[in-house]
Amino acid sequence: MAVSNVNDSEFNKALKTHDDVIVKYYADWCGACRLYAPIFKRLSEDKRFKKVKFLEVNIDHCPRAKGKVKIDFIPFVATFKNGELLDAMPTTQQTKTVIMLEELVRYDALIEHDYR
Q1: Is the predicted pLDDT of residue 103 greater than 50, yes or no?
Q2: What pTM value is reported for the model?
Q3: What are phi and psi of 82, to 5 degrees?
Q4: What pLDDT does 109 receive?
């Protein structure tokens, strides 16, 4: 699945229409964000995460989407489950992003098996 660069209204729509969403918050002027971009794109093409919607949000142009999380450094990655924040952290590391994605996907598996 491709990464979608979204504005505030598209961001809100994606949270409402997709169960599993991961968001990369970035800025055009951020060098670390540019270095992290190919990692995020590569993960969006990983078959393990085919049900996850991958979004990019430019923090300089999307104040409402930015307000969904407390961003202290960028790039900043957040996962959302059914529109609710599940996890969030600043990172440029593929392994940390994979852990977040695996937790998001694993959460689905737990619900499907109804472990109570």
Answers
A1: yes
A2: 0.89
A3: 50, 40
A4: 59
Q: What's the CA gap between 47 and 11, in Å, rounded?
A: 23
Counts of helices then strands in the chain (DSSP H, E): 4, 5
Indicate if the pLDDT at residue 16 is higher than 80: yes
The CATH number given to whatever domain includes residue 81 is 3.40.30.10
Structure tokens at 31: 């060098």
**Domains: count for the chain:** 1
User: By C-alpha distance, which of 38, 111, 27, 107 is closest to 74?
Assistant: 27
pLDDT reported for residue 112: 54
Catalytic residues: 30, 33
Q: Rounded to whole angstroms, what are the CA distances from 19 to 27, 49, 62?
A: 26, 12, 21
Question: How far apart are alpha carbons 8 and 47 in whole angstroms?
Answer: 28
pLDDT of 110 reads: 55
Domain that holds residue 27: 3-113
